[in-house]
# Entry
Amino acid sequence: MDKCVNLVKLSVGTESVESLMAWQEMRRRELPEGLPRHVTRMWPKREAEILNGGSIYWVIKGLIQCRQRVLRMDEVIGEDGIRRCAIILEPELHRTLTAPKRPFQGWRYLKTEDSPADLPAGKSQEEPLPLELSQALAEIGVI
# Structure
């Protein structure tokens, strides 16, 4: 049986989990199935492991803050004729414990044991900590 692996991706230009949700909701109206997607030029070589329960973890303002489960990967051909991978995601964003992540390009694999845990039920509805405080606490390993 294949093991599970996740992806981690910077959400460029996103200010908060709420702004990522709003952007995805706006884009979903333009898509045939209404499912959020992230299109990337590189096809993950570890596709089977990702599709075995993996998620994409979103880095917002230097912190992993949420994740979305990966449903499947579809081939899309751009107007330039280049084959790309559309990573199809479940609509729900799951808030996670924050974890600092330095900037990088593209996406990276993220082992399940290195992935931040989801926030406990009910915590996701609480007012988030100010960004600076959350970053400082994550840097010293408190959250």
Notes: The mean pLDDT is 88.
